[in-house]
Please model this.
Amino acid sequence: MSDHDTPAPVADRPLKLVQPLWAIIFRNTAPMEVVRQHREAHLKHQVELERAGVLFGAGPLAELDGTRVGRGLIIIRADSAEEAKRIADSDPMFAAGVRQYELHQWQIAEGNLRITLHISDGSHIVH
Model:
């Protein structure tokens, strides 16, 4: 992700009571061995988004027994559909054509997230 593709950190954006979130629902379109070739670049990209305050959460989807199904979900913060699409398109998996995605606006209405951070050892628990 180049500097011109990096959205402004969340702290630098105007305060909004309701900020739209964007759900990127993806599916693999290439065999897993090909998808894995892009994994390191994809994870680096995700960490960059996380550190910039853009990535809300991400991960694979699985069957009830935990078997992965070649699909997943990435939720990002963006001020517009155009910005969300630009962020999604910058993911190395999508740029390489090994995954395709659908983009949907998601307005979180209810929920709860608690995190316990143990300062002494840097460990954490997400409740």
